[in-house]
Design brief:
Shape: globular
CATH architecture: 3-Layer(aba) Sandwich
CATH class: Alpha Beta
Structural class: alpha+beta
Order of helices and strands: EEEHHHHEEHHEEEEEEH
CATH topology: Beta-lactamase
Radius of gyration: 17 Å
Number of helices: 7
Strand order of the largest sheet: 2-1-11-10-9-8
Strand content: 15-25%
């Protein structure tokens, strides 16, 4: 029995999953080319495109955007003070970690305005086409309405592990904790006195409980989505996993929050680099 065989009894109609080591797919299960709604797994993709725009000089992460004192960096790190949905701020920037679709949408809108092209086109040209993600498409909000496949999303995970579209320093910046003193909530999981977040990526840190495994290192980063989707990269173990399903998280949340950690630990048991081994590029 492989780690991914554990998905066979997940209470979902369809699951497609993949494990990567050193950015290469080493194990799969389910229909790799089937389309799934990513839900919030869209946020790291959108953030990656915003970071490409930053490197191209189209936008600047520290330029003002939105309410006074807010920047593009605040928005990508869920520190802009905007609610989950809605344009009216509910806090000053960098006061709390408030998980916000609005913040991601504002960040994408800034790129759209500065580049003078629809964000869907910019995302396609900046990320999807260079990575060969031909089955991926933005169909609405850049925070939660991208459709993709396990095969395509694994290509994005490989890009994050060994960046080709961003300078190494920018990629590292994306997965480090921004505004590390902030408390906040991971929706559906829990409230944390320290709620670390990168630029579009959730960082595990010392969060407990968590949707990743007990064996995942604190450096693990990734995201899960309301469509029953999740991915993580554990740079110290040199392992990553993607799992896409077609059942909303809210319908099987208690199961997901048990089965995702079980899968994560099984993947690490099967594929993690031995202690002292050299891990992947992203740190």
């Amino acid at each position: 029995m492989t780690a991914l065989d554990r998905t066979a009894d997940w209470p979902v109609p369809t699951v497609a999953a993949a494990v990567l080591r050193s950015g290469a797919v080493v194990s799969t299960v389910g229909p790799q080319s089937a389309p799934f709604r990513l839900a919030s797994l869209a946020k790291p993709l959108t953030a990656w495109a915003v970071l490409v725009a930053h490197e191209e000089g189209i936008v600047d992460l520290d330029s003002p955007i939105g309410q006074p004192g807010c920047t593009l960096r605040h928005l990508l790190a869920h520190a802009g003070g905007y609610p989950f949905e809605g344009d009216a701020p509910i806090a000053a920037p960098a006061r709390k970690r408030i998980y916000s679709n609005t913040g991601i949408e504002l960040a994408a809108a800034a790129v759209e305005s500065a580049s003078a092209m629809p964000f869907a086109d910019y995302l396609r040209l900046a990320v999807f086409e260079p990575l060969g993600m031909a089955a991926s498409e933005l169909r609405g909000s850049p925070a939660h309405q991208i459709w993709s496949t396990a095969e395509d999303y694994a290509r994005f995970v490989a890009e994050v592990v060994t960046p080709t579209l961003l300078a190494p320093s920018t990629a590292i910046d994306a997965v480090r904790d921004h505004y590390p003193s902030l408390s906040g909530i991971v929706p559906g999981v829990g409230r944390y006195e320290r709620c670390p977040w990168g630029l579009g990526f959730e960082i595990r840190g010392a969060k407990s409980p968590h949707w990743t495994g007990a064996r995942n290192r604190e450096s693990t980063f990734g995201h899960f989505g309301g469509a029953g989707t999740m991915f993580w990269i554990d740079p110290d173990a040199d392992v990553a996993v993607v799992a896409l399903t077609d059942r909303p998280f809210d319908e099987w949340a208690s199961d997901a929050l048990r089965r995702w950690p079980e899968l994560s630990d099984a993947v690490l048991d099967e594929f993690a680099s031995p202690p002292g081994a050299v891990a992947g590029t992203v740190r």
